[in-house]
Design a protein that fits this description.
Length: 82
């Protein structure tokens, strides 16, 4: 049986992992955006395609971050449950 203090420590650890996941997601988004800029500059895609794909990447990024946040809330509830 975990003490309340230990449960709080585990919640903090879970929050750190969640923040690491958010950072990783944003890094992937940044790499994707840079690749799009490069493709547009080289003429592989049009400006409209660039904008549309950028919006899709942003929507996907937001969705993944929401999933991380939802998982964190769920895990914190589970940890704090006596």
């Amino acid at each position: 049986e975990l003490s309340e203090e230990r449960r709080k420590e585990l919640s903090k650890v879970a929050a750190k992992y969640a923040e690491g996941a958010r950072i990783a997601i944003r890094n992937v988004r940044r790499d994707g955006m840079e690749a799009l800029k490069k493709m547009e500059k080289e003429g592989d895609i049009s400006e409209d395609d660039h904008k549309r794909t950028s919006q899709d990447i942003q929507k996907l990024t937001d969705k993944m971050i929401e999933q991380v946040d939802a998982n964190l809330v769920s895990k914190e509830k589970e940890i704090m449950q006596v």
